[in-house]
Amino acid sequence: MILDGKCPKGPIQTSWDRHRFDLKLVNPANKRKYKVLVVGTGLAGGAAAATLGELGYNVEAFCYQDSARRAHSIAAQGGINAAKNYPNDGDSIYRLFYDTIKGGDFRAREADVWRLAQVSNNIIDQCVAQGVPFARDYAGYLDNRSFGGAQVSRTFYARGQTGQQLLLGAYSALSRQVKAGTVKLFARTEMLDLVVVDGEAKGITVRDLITGEIRTHVGDAVVLATGGYVNVFYLSTNAMGCSVTANWRAHKKGAFFANPCYTQIHPTCIPQHGEHQSKLTLMSESLRNDGRCWAPKKKGDNRHPNDIPEEERDYYLERKYPSFGNLAPRDIASRAAKEQCDDGRGVGPGGRGVNLDFSDAIKRVGEHTIRERYGNLFEMYEKITDENAYKQPMRMYPAPHYSMGGLWVDYNCESNVPGLFVLGEANFSVHGANRLGASALMQGLADGYFVIPYTIANYLAKTKPGAVKADHPECKKSVEDVKSYNNRLLNINGKKTVSEFHRELGKIMWENVGMARSEESLKDAIKRIPVLREEFWKNVKVTGKGEELNQQLENAGRVADFLEFGELMAKDALHRNESCGGHFRTEHQMPDGEAKRDDENYCYVGAWEFKGVDKEPELHKEPLTFENVHLAVRSYK
Amino acid sequence: MNLTLHVWRQSGPKAPGKLEQYEAKNVSPDQSFLEMLDEVNEHLIKEGKDPIAFDHDCREGICGMCSQVINGVPHGGQERTTVCQLHMRNFNDGDTIYIEPWRALAFPIQKDLIVDRNALEKIMQAGGYTSCHTGGVADGNAILVPKIAADYAMDAAECIGCGACVAACPNGSAMLYTSAKVAQLAALPQGQAEAAERVCAMTEAMQEAGFGNCSNHYECQAACPKGINVKFIARLNREYQKALFK
């Protein structure tokens, strides 16, 4: 099937404005007759629920945490981009659009990216009005900095907590609507199934994580904003609860999963210290402005780094990429670090780390300056590793950080299942192959505040409100299905814990479907994942009952979904015989290690249709066309 | 290292609770406190026992989900540290550790170490926002905010809503939490129009939820993983008095 992204035709500059005018409206008096279910309360979901509530729709919002304020958007530190051109350095909507298309390695839709750049300016205004304490200069104007290699200063920030502050802004808007009664908030509630009636999304089946009650909520449309799936690797920078579950269950009900193989690996994370580690912590990439990456030249050299003389160190980034050196792009720096370790020259416990050395910078500008620039990061590092990075090099290792694939959506953020809308990291749009810094926060809020309120009306206007009631056979069936699925998990009573399975899956994924993949490694993963999945369903041990607070059962369901999703991710990576941004196939690289794209054969979105757990999924394509930014090789040289 | 844990176990809000003893063996000093508990749980599961339920999510000290009173101190007593960022190297081989849930009237226990912090939500819903509609707001630079005000607001905005301040307070007061939001919005031009209404509504919500009052013990500030200063409580009181005279 050739998928239609429904992008507006004609000049890109007016595409969103024209489209917005063409969208149908819902009469203000009728809005309250419609109920919208919003799953996830991060930047995208929180903003969407608040905005739809403000407009007068009847909204029910769901999150698995105890408060909407705890969504993982909160942990995004760096900043949020907007094309305000406040610093007068030549930024414009067009330039932000252009940078993002190129940064996405020409694997995102032009129209979507244009809209993102256009509404980015509204986002800043909105957040300022909410009282988000962005950095200001002494005159009281908003301050900007440059981020992620951009040549203009377009990043707005609130200390190192931009994500937290933006989320609290959205959460405050949401709280206001809860008080006003337009939004009903269901915390500690996890979506476990999508209810589809006559081909349209009309409800969700959830589990109350406190009582264990399984019930269906019906609505006129469903909005998924449930974040990303990189916890499929087990160790990642994501929060523990981040999962693919809501997306995957919707996928099983017909929603296409697009580009799952695109994941971003962040190069500067604190390495794993042992087998029982639960997650990885990201350190700001800005550290590489002053830190020099090196590994010992000799294999297995376990001397203290300060005892290794200069001539026995390999400053591998400076050697391999002389023009960019330590500031090589994320994907290149990540792969280079892993290569050192795979070659037996890694440092620290398990040899999974490289040195990030500040001694030269300290000699050059003094410890005081380094402390001013990165002090909080050095403190955080010391807390976790017990090492003083002013006295010896930091250890760094790449970690899975962000998903750029997700459920397929058209220009209206609507999936191929009518009535199912997907926002933020949960959808595939905008980011394409390689996300640039400071753009994830932008997408979440753009979708939630400024896209969905318009596009969902177009669907609702054509829909009879309240058509499906809670006693509909599909709802009953969904509840029964979820109950029996959970009971199956509870009754296996095997020998291995859920975490043991997750760790095993993570190893397969990281080694075979991680930052560098080959045909061989992917085929190996595709062979091994179903074997592990089979073992899981025979040998997992989930204690307790379904009708109570049961964290093991929650985890078991999430890992069961990862065990299915991981296979699709590997299949997607195998079919895409090219490298682009975050997707790197070792067979497809330039002589200098840059990703080698194949625009002739792969300039499309790959969207997969679910056919059954042990059946081959079907690939559908949405061709991508570039009329405004011409296809060109991405070069950071 | 090997540790002896005494952990509060309670199967539900109405059920009686008690401290139960567990051994944590071969704990690595590099593990975080929660990772140590993960491992204890893995053993419990294999023995067919109910693992210890506790709240956690981001495990990098920012989401505010984790909540444990360790040896009598919320988040374990290391300065400016959430329990997920507390590492086992702060303990010694052979130590005995007491682990309990947040204790406050307004935070009923759900299970083991998990409490219901919905009362904090009620305070936010009472007025912790500016009533601006999405879209149609002025350009971000149209409202000037002096850097000093922006920095002050930012200091207050750092609160992660974990509730340690409540758990640490002998009165079970949520005034540090509430004051942080009141002070943030009172310091900014955006929050001015509703300042009086906000402080009254949020104070009322605080009382309704069953939180106690501040009597200047400063335990909240000591327990706060983000270092929120008690000066914001003074600001809360001042804003409240100002509102009463309006």
UniProtKB/TrEMBL annotation, chain A:
KW Lipoprotein (keyword) present: no
Superkingdom of this protein's organism: Bacteria
Signal peptide start and end residues: none
Keyword list, A-Z: Flavoprotein, Oxidoreductase
Domain FAD-dependent oxidoreductase 2 FAD-binding residue range list: 36-441
Domain Fumarate reductase/succinate dehydrogenase flavoprotein-like C-terminal: 502-636
InterPro entries: FAD-dep_OxRdtase_2_FAD-bd, Fum_Rdtase/Succ_DH_flav-like_C, SdhA/FrdA/AprA, Succ_DH/Fum_Rdt_flav_su
UniProt protein name: Fumarate reductase/succinate dehydrogenase flavoprotein subunit
Organism, scientific name: Geomonas subterranea
Taxonomic lineage from the root: Bacteria, Pseudomonadati, Thermodesulfobacteriota, Desulfuromonadia, Geobacterales
Automatic annotation (TrEMBL), chain B:
Pfam short name (any one): Fer4_8
InterPro entries, per the entry: 2Fe2S_fd_BS, 4Fe4S_Fe-S-bd, 4Fe4S_Fe_S_CS, SDH/FRD_Iron-Sulfur, Succ_DH/fum_Rdtase_N
Required cofactor names: [2Fe-2S] cluster
Protein origin, superkingdom: Bacteria
Coiled-coil positions: none
Record-annotated 4Fe-4S ferredoxin-type domain positions: 150-179
Keyword Metal-binding among UniProt keywords: yes
Keywords: Iron, Iron-sulfur, Metal-binding
NCBIfam families recorded: PRK07570.1
Protein name per UniProt: Succinate dehydrogenase/fumarate reductase iron-sulfur subunit
Organism the protein comes from: Geomonas subterranea
